[in-house]
Write a structure and sequence with these properties.
2 strands, single chain, two-stranded antiparallel ribbon, mainly alpha, globular, 2% strand
Length: 263
């Protein structure tokens, strides 16, 4: 259906400067915020006998996925799809000697991999930030305690799954509308409303995908006890809803794009 060559071609497109700089700025801002928050308030951060990596992982996960992940996805997906709209490239891609669905699937896989690479880079930056803090503030004891890789993997995995619903919606919108502005505006409005609903500890947030990254796991910022989240082994209702939303909107995108006229 697709090959390494087609994936490589899509990644070359994602080197488009705004996408590259968007990722770099997000990583830099996250690293600066985490360093500054620890450096400026060391007395409340430090805890005798506590592993400082635990707090750093939870804080990084919470700040990124609550305040930055959805805007990042909105801009990433919108910019990646707008490249094709701007160059009127869909006509050329759809008349190529391969099924047009494979073209869309490759684009989606590329975006998912870019998101994964961004999260991996964020984790690397977080570790660097921890050791920088250990150098300037050895009393935090980042060098004394082991890095909680299992905690890091679990926290970010749950949050990524909760973000899939938003990615699916924005992917669908960006394909259906040729301009960049409308899908981006819908995404930004969805993000703002999602924060409001998600912070109210209201069961309504279970049905609003833009709230999922906020409520999927308790990171000590918002209460979620009244939402009614049920755990099913490793996954919970929020993650299952996010996966379902992703599948529905991606399926709609594939169906509609397979029937789109290219004349």
């Amino acid at each position: 259906m697709f090959s390494i060559k087609t994936l490589r071609a899509e990644f070359i497109k994602l080197k488009y400067p705004p996408i590259f700089w968007l990722t770099a700025v997000v990583l830099f801002v996250m690293m600066a915020v985490m360093f500054a928050s620890h450096f400026l308030d060391v007395n409340s951060v430090a805890g005798l006998g506590d592993n400082p990596w635990r707090k750093l992982i939870v804080a990084t996960n919470g700040i990124f996925f609550i305040f930055m992940a959805i805007p990042f996805i909105v801009l990433l997906v919108g910019a990646a799809i707008y490249i094709e709209h701007q160059a009127n490239a869909w006509k050329h891609l759809y008349v190529a000697p391969k099924h047009r669905i494979s073209t869309i699937v490759v684009k989606l896989i590329t975006l998912l991999l870019w998101l994964l690479f961004t999260i991996i880079a964020l984790c690397i930056c977080m570790v660097i930030c921890g050791y920088m803090l250990d150098f300037f503030l050895p009393e935090l004891e980042f060098g004394y305690f082991p890095i909680l890789f299992s905690k890091m993997l679990s926290s970010f995995s749950h949050s990524i799954i909760a973000l899939l619903g938003v990615l699916g919606i924005q992917f669908f919108l960006s394909l259906r509308f040729k301009g960049f502005l409308l899908p981006a505006c819908i995404g930004v409005i969805g993000f703002v409303v999602g924060i409001i609903i998600g912070s109210l500890n209201n069961p309504l947030s279970k049905f609003y995908p833009y709230s999922y990254p906020l409520i999927v796991k308790d990171v000590g910022m918002f209460r979620t006890d009244k939402i009614g989240i049920i755990e099913y082994g490793w996954l919970n209702t929020i993650e299952l809803s996010s996966i379902a939303c992703f599948v529905v909107f991606v399926s709609l995108a594939l169906i509609l794009e397979s029937k789109r006229s290219i004349t």
